[in-house]
From TrEMBL:
Listed GO biological process terms: phosphorelay signal transduction system
Keyword Transmembrane: yes
Pfam families linked to this entry: Response_reg
Positions of the Response regulatory domain: 4-120
Modified residues (4-aspartylphosphate): 53
Chain segments annotated as transmembrane: 133-151
InterPro entries for the chain: Bact_response_regulator (IPR050595), CheY-like_superfamily (IPR011006), Sig_transdc_resp-reg_receiver (IPR001789)
Keywords for the protein's UniProt record, in alphabetical order: Membrane, Phosphoprotein, Transmembrane, Transmembrane helix, Two-component regulatory system
Gene3D superfamilies associated with the record: 3.40.50.2300
Protein's recorded name: Response regulatory domain-containing protein
Length: 276
């Protein structure tokens, strides 16, 4: 008997790609494109695992998760939150509501997701005595790895140069450029605190804020490889792909006391993260 996975995701292409990886492992995949449909299918189909996005129409992922865990019919179904949101408060909220795991989309491939689904689907399907012993040992190892990853994440969360911070800053800038708005970092030394804003929301309220403008919004000299003083953020296009923000590199000025240089330095933010 095939195990069933309910994929609650409003991005059809994204859902299709991940469904293929799940089918390769022998799963039957059900789809729901909004939160309300996700709850209904969870109640009627009783899947072995639910993969749940947060940014959904009608009901967001947090509302869906809360409703699933409040119902006797669906409370025992493992729910893997799979979202682009990477803030610690989002992770904590999902786990507090009963999510079995929280995966960040930018850090996992469809194959990674399929492996996590396989682990939870097997748990719900039941095991023999031997399998339970093996599972217990595996879970102990996974728990140790997860705890280690938590410690690493906790330490890195205070470091502006982590991959997580780089990814959040890159996504925020791309959104800002596409929407013709501005990127504001609420803490001058923490790229993970960047947010997109428009109009009056972009005002730097105190000295801890750094406002990064794209070159067409900023004033003064654009940042270059040799910039050693505050400069306007600039975009460096990939040859032959001018205008493609997904592959562009962003050069900006960052003032940090630990640099050991007066005035800070310029950094390049690209698909691979931050580099000098």
């Amino acid at each position: 008997m095939k195990l069933t996975v309910l994929l609650v995701e409003d991005d059809k292409l994204f859902a299709t790609i991940h469904a293929e990886a799940l089918r390769d492992l022998g799963y039957t995949v059900l789809f729901a494109e909004d939160g309300e449909d996700g709850v209904k299918k969870a109640q009627t189909e009783n899947p072995n695992v639910i993969v749940l996005d947060i940014g959904l129409p009608k009901k967001d992922g947090f509302e869906v998760l809360k409703e699933l865990k409040a119902s006797d019919e669906t409370s025992s179904i493992p729910v893997i939150m799979y979202s682009r949101l990477s803030a610690r408060e989002d992770v904590n909220q999902a786990l507090a509501l009963g999510a079995s795991e929280y995966l960040i989309k930018s850090q996992h491939t469809p194959e990674d997701l399929a492996e996590h689904v396989q682990r939870f689907a097997s748990l719900r399907a039941g095991f023999s005595s031997v399998q339970r012993v093996l599972l217990f040992g595996t879970l102990c190892v996974l728990l140790g790895i997860t705890f280690y990853q938590y410690l690493v994440f906790r330490d890195r969360s205070y470091d502006a140069d982590t991959l997580l911070a780089a990814e959040r800053a890159r996504q925020a800038f791309l959104a800002a450029a596409q929407e013709q708005s501005t990127l504001v970092c609420d803490s001058g030394s923490a790229l993970s605190a960047c947010r997109v804003c428009t109009g009056g929301d972009c005002t730097a309220g105190d000295q801890t804020q750094t406002v990064l403008h794209s070159e067409w919004f900023g004033s003064g000299e654009a940042c270059t490889e040799n910039s050693t003083a505050p400069c306007a953020l600039s975009v460096e296009w990939v040859a032959g792909k001018e205008g493609d923000l997904r592959q562009a590199r962003i050069r900006f000025y960052q003032r940090r006391s630990r640099d050991g240089r007066a005035g800070g330095r310029t950094y390049v933010l690209g698909p691979a993260g931050i580099s000098l």
